[in-house]
């Protein structure tokens, strides 16, 4: 459950804190920066309450108000994000492993973790030639459409899919995005059989991504790697070769995290 799901019920011991987190969640997830009144409407808050919270959050550097009145995330959360990433073994292990894996220099490699029905990007190694897409740290995308999301969902019990998507499936990002839960289930069967996942234009047309899971010391999939290339490069031989190499790289990361 996201932080804003329960703010109208008043069941929280610290409602102001929950509302502040809900505001940050909403603004960071919005394609267009909201105004104060739009924010209040979206979260079901009285405008006076939203105004007081936003004003305090501006003073603390949590939010920034643009000249046109729209709101954006401020610089202060970056301190928390930097501390989190600095202390996360996943990220440091990713950086070390990818730096040593010279075979991936031509490709963009990313790492994500699963958060509900979305993946969150926590690390990225850009290719020495740019792609027509930018993967930002902290960016969130619907898990069913991404290579890492498909890999992570394929590693979960099938019943979890109903809990995540039974009441609603994410809107497609492209005309190739998987359209339904039943179609996703078929893709996940293929992913398990193949050993790695494939996103063929589902988050961006013309982009082709492969995914493989990273396990911790318990063997549980805690993250996933994706390797991105252009659709024109994705010949059957290239897919098989890079898919195998990515699975090996993910296994190497798993070993560094104490996995088997």
UniProtKB/TrEMBL annotation:
Domain called IclR-ED: residue spans: 76-259
UniProt-listed Pfam families: HTH_IclR, IclR_C
Domain named HTH iclR-type: residues: 14-75
Taxonomic superkingdom: Bacteria
SUPFAM superfamilies: GAF domain-like (SSF55781), Winged helix' DNA-binding domain (SSF46785)
Keywords: DNA-binding, Transcription, Transcription regulation
One Gene Ontology MF term: DNA-binding transcription factor activity
Record flagged with keyword DNA-binding: yes
Name of the protein described by the UniProt record: IclR family transcriptional regulator
